[in-house]
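User: Assemble these into one structure.

Assistant: Restating your components, then the assembled model:
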Amino acid sequence: MSKHVWTARPDRILRAGEGFRLDAVDAGATPGFAGDKAVARKQLAVRSQLLGDLQERLYAGSRTGEATDAVLLVLQAMDTAGKGGIVRHVVGGVDPQGIELAAFKAPTEEELKHDFLWRIENRLPAPGFIGVFDRSHYEDVLIARVHGLADGREIERRYDAIEAFERRLTESGTRIVKVMLHISRDEQKERLMERLDRPDKHWKYSPGDVDERLRWDDYMAAYQAALERTSTPDAPWHVVPSDHKWYARLVVQELLIAALEDIDSQWPQADFDVAAERKRLVAS
Amino acid sequence: MSKHVWTARPDRILRAGEGFRLDAVDAGATPGFAGDKAVARKQLAVRSQLLGDLQERLYAGSRTGEATDAVLLVLQAMDTAGKGGIVRHVVGGVDPQGIELAAFKAPTEEELKHDFLWRIENRLPAPGFIGVFDRSHYEDVLIARVHGLADGREIERRYDAIEAFERRLTESGTRIVKVMLHISRDEQKERLMERLDRPDKHWKYSPGDVDERLRWDDYMAAYQAALERTSTPDAPWHVVPSDHKWYARLVVQELLIAALEDIDSQWPQADFDVAAERKRLVAS
């Protein structure tokens, strides 16, 4: 935490706790951050160094077999909220060798034959790695609820299954950083319009985006329910105001830093005789 | 190509062609580059923008289903030559979402039951992606030859198999960029010594590194043979002098840029009615 730019720890003030109300969040605010966009840009670069250093310590343990901990960043958001920018500008600042990135699209036929957590399990980060989920098992209680792909009873079962699943993960050493990037309905309209206005952005647009947008209130209700049911002390949700992309990126960076500082990986000890190896090397 | 810093195209002058002799390469040279380390650092940042832009065009096609081409960067080198630095500082400059990174270690029991190209096939980049192989199928004609894990006849079979395999890949749209990072024996000694001197680098050291170093000449002979047998017009090898890390990074960046410029991806055309979507969006 750089105290001069933050007036409060984002991992605390953005946590969805008891009585959390999504409709009370101002997506255009920048809570806890004392600077502007220019300050944020510098801050992102400065903190990227620290994030990279912490990640290297974590990764080092994976090479020597000592690592027991991992980090899992779960990104959920309405379209255009900036998941891709987080991956590029925050995650992209650390060594790609230590990152396991999984983008979950509509499930395949094979995936649908299994329980909804099966494909998730297959993509969990190994000890020493930072896993990044671009969408996740939460789609199965969000889009599934909004489109009625599962009935209320099944959705309830899934909340419970997710809680048990995430408890197992945290107990076995994975820090789960759950992030909802929260944009306003107006901001989404502007961003979608930009994709329509620019031919080099057409590939990012799909008519389905407006279909989903028309269900905005249903999505917010589904998010509210999911946040209530699955924001646990060990795997809390963070709802990040994201109309300002620079703010959301800084926050997610700080959340990752906090998770890695909590793990507090130390450099692995040499399991060989350093002096003897030095002699062998000199003679080689 | 930025003409003011390069006096010759690195993809041309570093190509291992007819009559190539590895022992004639000066690992400490910086052929074709007119600047020093400081210039190189700036150049890397500037060209990273272009690399990222080209990669985004390639990736866009994967999202719309139009992409038919991919890039595969194959990195081979003696220990400490800088593969990791290439991944971090060159590949790390582009959007992680478009990268498929595979680090090949000693084969598992299951992998050994299959032909040596089986595990390679499984990790090939999909159209629209840049695949990066940190070590590769070439280990099966390098370490395998040096340690006698396969006899001469089997090694010959593998050269032919690799040539046929890579021809199939290039014919189906993959640009294969094969890079040997070439360091001198003295430089390797210095880099290994640094790993022994610094406790935060011990995890990167293994006593086996000196064992392999003692077979230096055998490795150079194995590389020479592999370069002769598998540097084809469609999938040529580039031997990159790598005692100066900054030079090697710039070169690999240029090789990737050249491959992407060769593909010359265009932004996908909208497959929807832009005006109609604009109306729908405004009304939403």
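The interface with chain A takes residues 60-61, 63-64, 84, 87-88, 91-92, 95-97, 99, 101, 103, 134, 189, 192-193, 196, 199-200, 202-207, 210, 213-214, 267-270, 272, 274, 277-278, 280-281, 284 of chain B (CB under 8 Å).
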